[in-house]
Batch of 2 targets.
Target 1
Amino acid sequence: MSTSPRTPGNGQIQFGVFFQGVNHTTVWRDPASGSQTDFESFRRVAQTAERGLFTAFFLGEGLRLREHLGRIHELDVAGRPDAQTALAALAAVTTNIGLVATQNTTYNDPADLAHRLSSLDLLSGGRAAWNIVTTDNAWTGANFRRGGFLAHEDRYIRAEAFVQTAKAIWDSWADGAIAGSRGSRQWLAEDAITPVRRKDASFDVEITGRLPRSGQLHPVLFQAGDSPEGRDFAVRNADVIFSRHAGLEAAKKFREDIVARTLKAGRPADDVKIFPGQEFILAPTAKEAEEKHQWVRERQVGPQTAIAFLEQFWGRPLTEYDPDGPLPDVDPVVDVTDPTRGNAFHGKNARELAAEWRAEAEDKGLSIRQFVSGRAQLNGRGLVGSYDDVADLLAEYAHSGAVDGFNITPWIVPSGLDDIVNELVPRLQDRGVYRTEYEGTTLRQNLGLRAPLSHRNGSLAAVDQTQSEEVA
Amino acid sequence: MPSSPTPKNRSAVLGIELDGDGAHPAAWRFAAHEPGALLTGTRIRETVQAADIAGFHLATFHDSRTTDTGAAGIAGRIDAVQRAAFASPVTRSIGLVPEVGVIYTEPFHVATQLASLDYSSRGRAGWLVSAENTLQEARSVGRDVLPAGEVGAEAADVVESARRLWDSWEDDAVIRDAATGRYLDAGKLHYADFEAGRFSVKGPSIIPRPFQGQLPVFAPAALLPSVEADVALVSAATPEELAPEAEAARNAGAPRTLLELDVVLDARGWRAADRLAELDAHGHWDGGARYVGNAAGLAELLAELFQQGDGVRISPAVLDTDLPELAALVLPELRRTGLLSGPVPGGTLRESFGLSRPANRYAAAAAL
C-alpha cells in the first residue's frame, strides 16, 4: 500500500470525472461527439478513467427536464439515465473506480435511497458514493407524490435528518448478522437488525434495514453546497466536498475555511477532502491549447445559446439582439430568476445582475457571445495549457495542499478524457504527484478516508481494512 | 375473443427466477458458496451468466421492501433493478426483469430507473410489477397502509404513469441540429400530465424513450384487468390447474401469459424427491405448481405447458444444483425437439414475446 493521504496537502492529486449529461458545455456539434444516453458512452468514459487510475466516476441528477421561457429548453444536451441504475451497470465492467451518484434528499425516502445506495455499494465491492443535494421548488416537485412540500429554509433541515437516518439504516445490521456457514441455525441471526425509528419535523418513520454493510462500511458522502450553511452541513456530514473554487488562491482560501469548520465540528483537519470541479483543455503546446480553447468555447456557446443564456435572466425573448453586439439595453422583466433552468441559476436578483453585466461587458468591450462564453463556464476559464505546463501547475496544487483532487468535466463525450489519461497522467506520475496504482479496492481506501464517524471508537474503526480485503 | 396460446411460428418463452440461492427457503444451505458471499456482484454475475449461456429468454429478480426477520430463509436482497443493471453489460441475450413495487415507491423514479435499465441492456429490460402492501413498508416511508381494495387501482395508475413517461420523448426528439443550435426538438417532447387519485406526474421523463419504446410489463394475473400488462404471470397450486388459469388471464386481457412452475430435479446422484425431503426438513416451502423428478419428465411437462401459454417461468429450488441440470439436460432437449429457440443475441425482450415495438401515443396523437 502506498502513501495514505491523512493530512491536507499530502503532495498528491487525484482525479474524478463528472459525466454531466445535462449542460451547454458538451460540444455535441462535433462529429466525435457520441450519445449522451447509450450505455456505451458511459462505459467508455468510466473505463478510460479507470485506465488513468481516477478515483471516482461522478453522475449528476436533474429530476425535471429544463425549461426556457415556459417551454422545454432545446439548446442544451439533455436526456440521461438514472444515476444509480447506470452506476450499477458500470460496477460490472470496472474494478477500482468509485461510483458517485447525485441523489436528492427532498424527492426520495431515506428507506428507499439508503437501500439503493447499499445495493450499489455491495455490487461494486465498496465503491459507492452519494453526492447529497437538496431542492425545494414546487416545479421539480410536480414529478413526485408530495409535490412542492418543502420550504426553502427547511431544505437543509430535511437533508440533515435524511442523512442521519440513512447512516442509522447502514448501521442497523449487526456485524455477523448473516450466518457464518451453511450449517448455521438460520440465515439471519436473532435480533441482528435494530429497527431505525425517527420522529421529528421531517420524518415519522420506522425502518427495518434490508442489507448489511459493504467493505467500506458506508457509502462515501459527497456534498456541493457553497453557502456558509452548505459548508457547515458538509463538515458535519460529508467526506468529500465537490467545490467551485478551482483557482489556486481561491482553493487555498476555501481549504482554510473548510479546515476551520471541520475542526470546529470536532473532526480531524484532514477528514473532509476537497475536489473542485474543473474543465481541462490540453494540447502539446501552449499555443495549440489556446487555439483549442477558442474552438471549444465557440462550440459550447453558439449564438442561440448566448442569447438564451441572457434570456433566462431577463425573463423575456431577446432574439432581436445581435449575439455579436453589445448586451441588451433593456431591463429584465423578472425580479428573480426561476428554477426551471436548473438550480445553479436559481434565485438571483435579475436587475442587479443585468446592470452589473452590462457595465462589465461595456468596460471590456465584449459582445454578447464573448461575454456569455466567459461567464457560462463551470469554474472560470478552465485549465488551459500544454501537457507539461498543466502538469507543472497541478504539481504546484499538490504541494500547496489546497485541494485533494479535481473533478474533471469533459467537454466532449465519450473521448474527453483520452488526452488527460494518455498525456497528463504520466507526466503527473513523473512528477511524483499522482498514484501509480490504486491504494485499495474501496473508494474509502482510495480517497484515504477514515472509517465513518459511527465506526471510529474501539474495534469498529479497524473493520475498514479487514472487511475490504474480504470483499476483494 | 381471447388470444390463442403460443402460435407455432414463435418459440415458447422460457424464464427463470434468480433471487437469492433458489426458491426454497432452505436453498442457502445447499448453495455452492458461504452465506456471506451471496450479496455480491460476483454471485449475481455467475448466476445470470449461467442462465444467459443456457439460453433462457429471461431472468426475473424477485424483490421485497419487507424484511422477515423471523424467517428461516434469506433476509437480505440487493435492489432488483440494480441486480438487473449489473447483469446487463455482462450478458448477451437474456431478458432482465426486476420486480419493482409500486405502492410505496415514487412512480417517476421507477419509470426512469427501468428506462435506464433498458438502455444498459440494449432492449432486454422488462418490469415485473409488485403490489406488495405491508405495514412495515408503509411505516418505512411514513405512510398508512393502503386499503386492500385500492391496491389494484394504485398499481394501475403507477403503470400508466410510467407508460406515459416512456412515451414523453418521441424516438427522434434528439435532433442535434447545428444550424439552429437545437439539441432537442421541443415539439417531440410531451408532458405526461398524469393526475391519479393519489399522485400526479408532470413529466417529461429525464431520459429519452426506452430502447424498446415501451418495456414489456409483467404482472401477476391477480392484478388483471386493472393493470395494463403485456405478460401475465399465471400461478396455480398444481401444474394441471395452470391451463384454466392461463385462459382466465387471457380473458382478462393479457396479451401474453407466462406459467409459473417450481422445479426440483434429480441431480448429482440424488433423486429429486429425496432432495426435496431434505430441503423441507429445514423449513416449509410455500411455492405453487411444482415439478419434482428427472430432466426428461420436466421436458415433457414443459412441452405440454407450452401449449397452454406463451411460456413458463421456472423457479428452481436450489440455483446451484438445479440450474446446471436445466442447462445441461432440459433446455437442450427442448431445442432438439424444436419446441424452444432463441433468444437472439442483439434482440429485444419484446421480440422474444413476439410483441412489436409500439407506436408512441403522443406521436400518434400529433399525426392525427
Target 2
Amino acid sequence: MSFEPGTELGKANLDVFAETLLELAQDNPDVLAVTSDSRGSGKLVPYAAAVPDQLVEIGIAEQNLVGVAAGLASTGKIVFAVSPASFLTARALEQIKNDVCYSDQPVKLVGISAGVSYGALGSTHHSIHDLAALRAIHNCTIIVPADNFETAEAVKAAARMFHPVFLRFGKRPMTHLHRPGTAFQVGKSLLVREGSDVAFIATGETVIHALLAATDLEREGISARVVSMHTIRPLDTDAILAAADECRAIVTVEEHSCAGGLGEACAAVLMQANRHVRFRIVGFPDEDTVTGSQLEIFTHYGISAQGLAGTARKLLASTDQ
Amino acid sequence: MTAVVLRIKSIQYRLRLLEYIKKAGAGHTGGSLSCVDILNVLYNRVLNVSPENFADSRRDRYIQSKGHSVEALYVVLADKGFFPESDLETLCRFRSPYVGHPTRKIRGIEQNTGALGHGLAFSVGVALAGKKDNADYRVYTLLGDGELAEGSNWESMLTAAHYHLDNLTAIVDRNQLQISGHTESVCRLECLTEKFQAFGWSVRSVDGHDVTALADVLGSIPFEVGKPSMVIARTIKGKDVSFMEHDAKWHHGVPSDEQYERARRELETLLMEAGA
C-alpha cells in the first residue's frame, strides 16, 4: 500500500505522547511524569493506572511542579513535567529559567493543549508566547511535533537528552505526514513535500495546512515545498537557507504569535546570511486573539489551505525576481 | 567537633566572608553573617557531604534557597576543601565562577539559586526521589524569612507534607530583617510556627547562633516520623559585628575601609574570647 502524506488521520499528538511515555516508563522505573492536576488533559489516566508509582501529582501549582521536577531530575530521574503550555511557560517561567535551564537540570517540559488548542476558552488558556519566551532563555531545546510520528520520536529523543527540552502538543487528531522509514533527528527538519516556487516552513499542527495548501497550488502549476520545522531550537538553518536558494518565496507558519516565534527566527537566519527572498510570517498578529475552535482561529488568521495558498500566490506575484 | 571549636569556626567564617565582600566591593553582608552558625553546624556536624563523596548519590543534600547569602556558603565550602579558598579572591570579578549567588559551576553547590522561593521546591523533588529510591540521604534547605512572602514556598510546603517527606528539613534564618526593614512591617509573617504546623510540618524553634542547640535540633530530625521538619532559627542580621547587627542597611552593605577594620578588630576580639 502506498502512503500519501496528508491523507490518513491519526491520533491526537497528546495521545501519542502519553502512549509513548507509558512505554518508556514500563521499560525504565526511573521515568516519572509530574503533573499539576493535569493527568486527564495530558491523557495520562491510563499511565497513572499502569505505573502509579511513576506519576507524581503536585496539584494546581505550576511553579512548584517545575521546581520539584528539577529536584527529581537532579537525582537521575527521567522527568516529564506535564502541564498546560499556557500555565507551564508563563506561571512557571522563572522556574523554567532558573531551576531547569540555568541550573541545567534535564527536565523534559511538556506543554499540553498548546497554542490555541483551548481556543474557545480565551487568552488565559492560549499559549502563543511560549516559543518566544523560551527562545530567549539559554539551554532549552524546543520541539513542536507536527504529527504522531514526530511526537513519538520527539518523546523518545527527549528521554535520552541530558539537558532541558520543551515539547509542545495539541489535542486534535493529526494527519500522518511522513512515509514509513523516515528518520527523525532533533534539530533537523523534515521535508514533507518537495517544491521549487514557494517554500512553506511550518511547525507543529500548522504543517498539515501548509501541505494542503501546497496540494491546491500544484493544480495551478505552483510548486510548493513543505518543511516540517519540528525543532525550533536548535534551528535547522541549512533547510532555511536551502529554501531561500531553491525557491522564489518563503512563507513561515506557526501556531504562535508572529513576535518571537519561528517566523522571526527564520527571518534572522536569512537576513544575516544575506539572503533576500520574498518572505511572509503567518501566525497570530499583535491583537486580542479571536476565540473559537482551533480550526476557526487558524482559518481566521490564514492558517488554512485556502489562506496559505492565497498568501503564497500573492507573495509570488508581488514582485519579479 | 566541640562547641568551642564550632564557635571559633563561626567567627573565622565571619572574618573571611567580610574579607571577601570587602575585596569584591559587593555581597550580602547582613544575611551571610546571620546564617553562618547554621551553615557551620550543618557542614561540620550534620551533613554527610564532602569533596570526596560529592558525586555519590547517597550524599546528604544542602540547598541554599536564600542564595544571596552565598558568601557564607563559599567560605564554609572552602573550609571543607571543596575548592581552594584563594579562589574567593575572584568573587564577583568579570567571568569569575564565584558569582553573587550559588551556581553548580562551583563544586559543592547542588543547585543554582538566587531568585527567591525556589530552593524548597527543588529540595522537595530531591527528597521525594530519595523516598522513591528508599535512599537514606537527607535534604536540608535554608530559607530567608523575607523569602517566605514568595507564594511558591507555601505550594512546596503542601507537597512536602502530602508526600510525608520526613527526610526533608527546612531552616528559616529568622533574622526579622529584609532589605526594606522589619519583616513584620513589610509583610507580616507571624505566627510562623502555627502556619508551618497548619501546613503539616513539625516545627522547632532554636537560637540560631547557639551551636550546641543547633546541633541538638538538627541532630534530632525527623522531629516526627512522616512529617517534614521546619527549624525556625532565631538569628541576628549582621551577627557579631556590633554596628551591623539589627540594621537592614547592611543587607547588601559593603563596609568602608574604616568600618572593615573596626569589624575585623571586633571579630578578632571575639576569637580571643572564644579561646582561639
